[in-house]
């Protein structure tokens, strides 16, 4: 008795399966990209909330004001004492006591997330890729002050900062000057500013 011969897959069948897999991946990619963009936006909001808390507590501990500034339409931010030596391009401010150095933070948001002004968030976020310059390479004149934390634990004024990223809804972070409370609001499509 002769065994039936086992048939192999044809080249056409293999190519057809590969085409189907590529089409399915192309259909799934936008939703996955959007999901990761939303995750990065939430991560950026949490990161800035934590840094604001750091700056506020440092201002209270040291008894001097601390400034938080960003580079508009980029993902760079900086926290340093509110003094000319900290913001004049001379790098980190010198401390009188080397064991008690002031808090100086130069960091970036997650890849693809950028700061926008509350007036221009509709036009922002259309670009992909990395939106930040390497930390420490930002021109001192490009910083835009957002908030100054005072030694009594308050801020000079209420602030709103907008995060944008391609594939995600813009997110607004609001800081109450008197209490230091921070709230997050995601802007829905077609919704105006609140």
Give average pLDDT, whole number. Answer: 82
Largest sheet: 4 strands, antiparallel
Residues in helices, as a percent range? 25-40%
What's the order of the H and E elements? HEEHEEEEEE
- Spatial extent as radius of gyration: 24 Å
Structural class: alpha+beta
**What shape does the CA trace take?**
elongated
What is the CATH superfamily label?
A: minor pseudopilin epsh domain
Descriptive keywords:
single chain, 194 residues, alpha+beta, minor pseudopilin epsh fold, four-stranded antiparallel sheet, 2 helices, 8 strands
Account of the 3D structure:
With about 190 residues, the protein is α+β, with helices and mostly antiparallel strands. It contains 2 helices and 8 strands. Strand 6 (about 160-165) and strand 7 (about 170-175) form a beta hairpin. It is elongated and about 95 Å long.
Task: Compile the SSE list and pairings.
Blueprint lengths: L10 H52 L3 E5 L5 E6 L2 H4 L17 E4 L5 E3 L27 E6 L9 E6 L6 E5 L6 E5 L8
Antiparallel strand pairs: 1-2, 1-5, 2-3, 4-6, 6-7, 7-8
In short:
This protein has 194 residues and is α+β, with helices and mostly antiparallel strands.
């Amino acid at each position: 008795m002769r065994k039936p011969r086992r048939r192999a897959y044809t080249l056409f069948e293999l190519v057809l399966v590969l085409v189907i897999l590529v089409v399915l991946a192309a259909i799934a990619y936008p939703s996955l990209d959007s999901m990761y963009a939303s995750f990065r936006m939430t991560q950026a909001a949490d990161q800035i909330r934590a840094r604001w808390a750091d700056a506020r507590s440092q201002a209270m501990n040291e008894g001097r004001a601390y400034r938080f500034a960003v580079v508009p339409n980029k993902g760079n931010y900086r926290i340093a004492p509110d003094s000319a030596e900290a913001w004049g391009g001379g790098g980190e401010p010198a401390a009188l006591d080397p064991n008690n150095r002031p808090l100086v933070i130069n960091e970036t948001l997650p890849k693809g997330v950028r700061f926008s002004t509350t007036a221009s968030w509709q036009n922002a976020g259309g670009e992909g890729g990395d939106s930040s310059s390497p930390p420490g390479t930002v021109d001192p004149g490009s910083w835009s002050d957002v908030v100054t934390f005072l030694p009594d634990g308050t801020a000079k004024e209420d602030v709103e900062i907008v995060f944008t990223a391609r594939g995600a809804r813009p997110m607004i972070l609001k800081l109450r000057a008197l209490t230091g409370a921070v709230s997050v609001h995601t802007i829905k499509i077609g919704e105006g500013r609140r």
